[in-house]
Amino acid sequence: MQNPVIKFIVTFIILFLVFFYFNILFLGIISPGNYYSSFLAEHLNYIQGLRSLLLSGSAQILEWFGYDTIYNHVDLLVAGKGTIRLAYDCLGFGIMSFFTAFVIAYPQKLNQKLIFLVSGILVIQLLNIVRFVLLALFWNKRANQIIDHHTVFNIIIYIIIIISLYFWIKHTDKVITQHA
Questions:
Q1: Are 85 and 69 contacting, i.e. CB atoms less than 8 angstroms apart?
Q2: Cα gap 141→85, rounded to integer Å
Q3: Where are the beta strands (DSSP E) in the chain?
Q4: Which end of the chain has the least Cβ crowding within 10 Å, N or C?
């Protein structure tokens, strides 16, 4: 693994698979069934924590715009508009796994990685909240069967991530060449 490109690719793939499948494994452990852990489900359930944060954030923004909302642990209802159900696939763990694996695998100083990683994940989730707000206001499941909002959102997010990574790498390479 002397070649830095090969090292990056292997590290990225391994990290992505670990992050992605850890979240799926954890979801299986906190869901009632064969390997259910009530301790993890009640005390370390970061999946439900993120879901609650996204629902409450979406509800708060809608209330700032004058809408009446009600939400529970999975649903958000906007009075006179509609309801959305926040499934596991809506939380963005796949996208965050990709982004996190890339940033960690890329050869860069730790403080630069941390700043970019935290800000990137915050932007991903802020855009997710914007999506939920728009879906709660305008999505009609029966009328919009042709458009899959998950696919549209993922395409937009991956385009934003790729552009962000491009500029981050370009800036990183520029800083490294200036110090060399």
A1: no
A2: 11
A3: 69-71, 75-78, 82-85
A4: C
Cβ-proximal residues to 116 (8 Å cutoff; 6+ apart), any chain: 103, 168
Residue 92: which region, alpha, beta or left (left: phi > 0; alpha: psi -120 to 50)? left
pLDDT in tens, 111-129: 999 999 999 999 999 999 9
How far is Cα 69 from Cα 83, in angstroms, rounded to an integer? 10
Q: What are the respective helix, strand and coil percentages of the chain, to the nearest 5?
A: 70, 5, 20
Cα(124)–Cα(84) distance, integer angstroms: 19
| Residue 41 in tokens | 């489900």
Query: DSSP 3-state assignment of 37?
Result: coil
pLDDT for 10-64, tens place per residue?
999 999 999 999 999 999 999 998 889 999 999 999 999 999 999 999 999 999 9
User: Cβ distance 116 to 167 under 8 Å?
Assistant: no
**What distance in Å separates the CA atoms of residue 32 and residue 26, rounded to the nearest whole number?**
12
Look up tokens 């992605």; give the residue: 20
Q: 79-116 pLDDT, tens per residue?
A: 988 889 999 999 999 999 999 999 999 999 999 999 99
Q: How far apart are CA 13 and CA 17, in angstroms?
A: 6
Identity of the residue numbered 105: A
